């Protein structure tokens, strides 16, 4: 990957809906080599997809919470069942297996504290092997980078 590829990635990270002509002009290439580079970046897996960034508040989910989850057991079967169940929860935006005191960190979008309580009581606490949780409600997002480009 060279400096031109990085310029392409930065431009697409800012505005993924650029036309090939707009992208080529922004990065200083003619359209054909630009298209070839983008296709190569897609085929190699550097570009994994293009996504719409949705406004959670406009969807009725203005609150973001981070939930740390500690598991009772760490055998493969319990972890697999937990991960599959969390993957099926539409409220959960991200789930990370982490090091430290807790085993997982979940990022969830909720409509408020009552909505969060429902998520916790009706879904997370009912998952097999959940021992303890700790939650932080976010106040505001200061920075969001969806895809870092070195």
UniProtKB/TrEMBL annotation:
Pfam families: AsnC_trans_reg, HTH_24
GO BP, one annotated term: response to amino acid
Family annotation (SMART domains): HTH_ASNC
Residue ranges of domain HTH asnC-type in the record: 1-62
Alphabetized Gene3D superfamilies for the sequence: 3.30.70.920, Winged helix-like DNA-binding domain superfamily/Winged helix DNA-binding domain (1.10.10.10)
Keywords per UniProt: DNA-binding, Transcription, Transcription regulation
PROSITE patterns (UniProt xref): HTH_ASNC_1, HTH_ASNC_2
GO cellular component, one term: cytosol
GO molecular function: sequence-specific DNA binding
Alphabetical list of InterPro entries matching this protein: AsnC-type_HTH_dom, Dimeric_a/b-barrel, Tscrpt_reg_AsnC-like, Tscrpt_reg_AsnC/Lrp_C, Tscrpt_reg_HTH_AsnC-type_CS, WH-like_DNA-bd_sf, WH_DNA-bd_sf
Superkingdom assignment: Bacteria
PANTHER family in alphabetical order: LEUCINE-RESPONSIVE REGULATORY PROTEIN, TRANSCRIPTIONAL REGULATOR AZLB
Name of the protein this chain belongs to: Lrp/AsnC family leucine-responsive transcriptional regulator
Naturally occurring in which organism (per UniProt): Neoroseomonas alkaliterrae
